[in-house]
Amino acid sequence: MSTSSSPASPEILRRNRILSSKLYFDVPPSKVPLIYSSAYNISFLGMEKLHPFDSSKWGRICQFLASAGILEKSCIIEPEEASNEDLLVVHPDEYLISLKSSLTVAKIVQVPPVAMLPNCIVQRKILDPFRKQVGGSILAAKLAKERGWAINVGGGFHHCSADKGGGFCVYADISLCIHFAFVQLNISRVMIIDLDAHQGNGHEIDFAEDRRVYILDMYNCEVYPLDFNARRYIDQKVEIASGTTTDVYLKKLDDALEVARQKFNPELVVYNAGTDILDEDPLGCVRISPDGIIKRDEKVFAFARDKGSPILMLTSGGYMKSSARVIADSIINLSKKQLIDMQGTQNMEKKV
């Protein structure tokens, strides 16, 4: 009498995919836990300019850091690109298949002419860069656990949930990096601090019933995505209005971090650090100064340090050319305040 084996449960399949992934790999100590690849940048016949997002800001951040003498390009970590099997950790096959329609991708990235492109070009010029950034976000969690901090100069696609993309977010890199961390890093308490100007409805939907994840989301409640269903799943909701100024914003953030400090003890902090809160950003609609963003990031990293929690930062939204400079200046400030260490071991040896 023969017996047929029962199919593996979704959780076992997810675990097996995570354990067989190549996105986690050993990084030599000479490298700084700052993750970037030139493959992040999106460029195709100028079509990327039809969306207000600066799709080359990631590379310019690293250029500013190198010019400031704070980062040697040889110390940057290049991630692997997320494979289909990696993406299936969170995304159902049906969703990934839907991305083989250029029209579907055009709607997600909000650039209508993309619908007219052959899908092979859409995959290579748009989706491949996003998959590379997903690999960076996932690796960032491992590096944060090992080094105390990590920055993916990209990622933060917080409008994408397992089943649905939107708002220039095709893959749910935040959800993916957390699920990888649950399995590979053996952690069970993650705090998402989402300070992009827009509500992080993607990860809110994905972790709606998951008490291992605590979400602090501070966002402009008057702009996209206006996802009232997802708002029900925010553990700590801080709503701000269009026109909110720097002093008011930073006071609300101080109060929010104090509440978070009392309510949850994370083993990992995922910080979605969008710069679309900058004054005059066309989509964020709040009025935070560049210095305000630098102070914001400093407060979040100090919070993680005080909690003894590793922190990974994703750069997320930011729709002005000035965003790259502000992000670089903020990273420089974090280094000056000794909240991060931008020196690899080789650099340290040279200075001795």
Automatic annotation (TrEMBL):
It is an enzyme of class 3 (hydrolase). InterPro entries: HDAC_classIV, HDACs, His_deacetylse_dom, His_deacetylse_dom_sf, Ureohydrolase_dom_sf. SUPFAM superfamilies: Arginase/deacetylase. GO terms for cellular component: histone deacetylase complex. The keyword Repressor applies. Its main location: nucleus. It is found in: Nucleus. It comes from the Eukaryota. Gene3D superfamilies: Histone deacetylase domain. It catalyses: N(6)-acetyl-L-lysyl-[histone] + H2O = L-lysyl-[histone] + acetate. Its cofactor is Zn(2+). GO terms for molecular function: histone deacetylase activity, hydrolytic mechanism. The keyword Transcription applies. Pfam families: Hist_deacetyl. Residues 51-332 form the Histone deacetylase domain. Its EC number is 3.5.1.98. CDD domains: HDAC_classIV. Responsible for the deacetylation of lysine residues on the N-terminal part of the core histones (H2A, H2B, H3 and H4). Histone deacetylation gives a tag for epigenetic repression and plays an important role in transcriptional regulation, cell cycle progression and developmental events. Histone deacetylases act via the formation of large multiprotein complexes. This is histone deacetylase.
